[in-house]
Amino acid sequence: MTKENLTLNDFSIGIGDRFGFEGPAQLRALKMALENGKNITPVWNKSNREHTLIGTEPASTRQAAEKAVSVEKWEGQFFVDADHIGLKTVDRFIDACDFFTLDVADFIGKPAPADEIDRFVKNLTPHTGTLKHALLDKELKISGDELKSFAGKYLYAIQEASKTFNYIKNKKGDGNFVTEVSVDEAYDTQTPSELYLFLAGLSLFGISAQTVAPKFSGKFLKGIDYVGNIEAFTKEFKEDLAVISIAIERFPLPKNLKLSIHSGSDKFSIYPHIHSLLKKSGKGVHLKTAGTTWLEEVIGLASDNNTLPIAKKIYSSAYDRFEELRKPYETVVEIERDKLPLPSQVDRWSAQQFVASLKHEHKSPTLDRNFRQLIHIAFRIAAEMGEEFRAGLISARAPIEQHVTENLYQRHIKPLFVGK
After folding, report:
1. pLDDT tens for residues 121-136?
2. pTM of the complete model
3. Nearest Cα to 186, choosing from 93, 108, 111, 124?
4. Domain 11-291+409-418 carries which CATH code?
């Protein structure tokens, strides 16, 4: 695959692989999608936070991805994502990555200088007014006052994205990387009008984003199903697809610009609705699944009696270090600590009981969402176990790979990308 003028396919999926073992199993799921007519690009994503907690470097993610591609003889495109980075953290990713997710949520609400706000408003005023599109139930009307309010809230964040984008471009060369801009960890959901103005701002600053990750309504918690009003989400997603189309027509943005869904793993309730809208609109999507693969590793360990003690040890340590593990993820997990099973209880569980409590299928009657969320954020403990954990991954290779492939294809790719 050429490194020049990189263009992301219409359909792509972020497949975080925290310990670098599961690339082949993940690619097998994507091969199954290809056999069913869907060409989905794998993007190995790992954030600065995850590298820091585990003690790895982006080069190891690149090496694992390239090894998997070689082993599975994957002939399609693939990328390695510097996930959720900014100007302060981007340097360690420059050499190893060709996909950069610029996270600017922390800068939303910080005011830019007044003269820059005035200039921004002046430049975008011609693009206000009435927006029409077949996917919109009614016209969007963007007033001058709304533009001024937007500039006060979002301009600084767009400027920060511009600084990081230009820094990467100077290091890697124009066209040699894919850019995603993320505001999904913002406090407030973006309205369709705000998303439109945000895209206009990215264009004004020359940021050639191929995907944008807005904050959708509802809760996108780690490793569990969507929490919220499904009808409201569906309407919002449809309006955002319309905004993407309008922005591509009006501004010099990449023609393949698409929505990205972060913390998208296990959001089973909304996958059919997204699939239907993508089919209707002809648009693409990027889904970030990240930690679901790590959870399948633990399920694989737990399903083998020889390695079940490793899974139990991970949980016991996580229970004891609850607040430490929760703190970096406090906005994206909701764990009722008093409802977590005691480690002494879990120690008596059979392999079947452990797997049933952790494994997540749509509307599973045995899933313990508190248990699953705690395991989800406990990968740091596995890293600290060192050779003991890695030996377990090798020993339970067959069940782990089976679970990884099945989970990625049957529960994620099939309902969202392939359909019934």
Report:
1. 999 999 999 999 999 9
2. 0.96
3. 108
4. 3.20.20.70
